[in-house]
Known about the structure:
By secondary structure, the protein is of the alpha+beta class. It is about 20% helix and about 20% strand. The protein is built from four helices and twelve strands. The strands form three sheets. It has a five-stranded mixed β-sheet. Strands 3-12-11-10-9 form a five-stranded mixed β-sheet. The longest helix has 24 residues, at about 295-320. It is globular, with a radius of gyration of 19 Å. It starts with 19 loop residues before the first strand and ends in an 18-residue tail after the last helix.
Amino acid sequence: MEPIRPGPGPRNLITDVPGLTVGQAHDAAARTGVTVILPDDRAVAACDVRGGAPGTRETDALSPENLVDAVDAIVLSGGSVYGLGAADGVVAWLGARGRGYGMVGGIPKSPVVPGAILFDMANGGDKLWGEDPPHRELGKRAVAVADLDIALGTAGAGYGAMAGGLKGGTGSVSAVTADGYTVGAIVAVNSWGSVIAPGGRTFWAAPFELDGEFGGLGPAGLRAGPDEWGSAKRPSEARNTTIACVATDAILTPAQAKRVAVMAQDGFARAIRPVHAPFDGDVVFAMSTGRRPVNDEYALARLGALAADTLARAIARGVFEAKPWPDAYVPCWRDLRS
């Protein structure tokens, strides 16, 4: 067998993790969207919340001491509180296909679908949806098209996002270790803080970049003086949130998945400055598709560290790939000059 070359997986997407697909949908008029992470089989998952203003669904069910030990999907959505309805659409789609937590005696299965939302309500899109927000339908559309390929940038849950003063978006990357573990991340970047250093366009995540995946500029120009944040939002724009999922093919218990989620949060701190503010709702899910054994706690520590690195890379890549909405101008990273 040929040795494995450490680095990005073949797609450099979270779907390099065996047993995962991703589906996305957006509403261009409303400037919002949904991303669904769909495992082939029920998957162990955990969640870690660091932002001061989170919007989540079924995250308490993931606590290791509780009954639920696996999920059927994870949903990331725009739309603020309205976006929590995206998971309703995913639950309906999965339940109609017999997927979910199993019961006996002919009782319908109950799909377990945790989710988190970001605030994209002030981006100029048409939010006059009355009693019919689009997110439930977007959730159904997204899960129905789940596949190995993922559109990045202005797509999915990051469709309506802003990252500091720049267009935010959906980013995804992967990494494969020399001993064969795969770790991937997907993120919708809608941060209050800046993803670039002051005075230029160097990503805070530049030291972690692989194969020029977000411009290949390197770390030159990185500096962080007191209160120098780069392209952060103004205080009046402080309604935000970056939401993410990291995944691995390693076999994890719920408690081990929780530790990976906790460690992965460091990827936010490596890529966004400042982060986890009182008005951010930053959330990281961790998922295990359970293909490769973890032999000791050192291996678990490696996976957590790698999850943080991949998440930092995914954040930068989401902003790097972002483009303006149709017929609109919004500052994008590609508009910057060094």
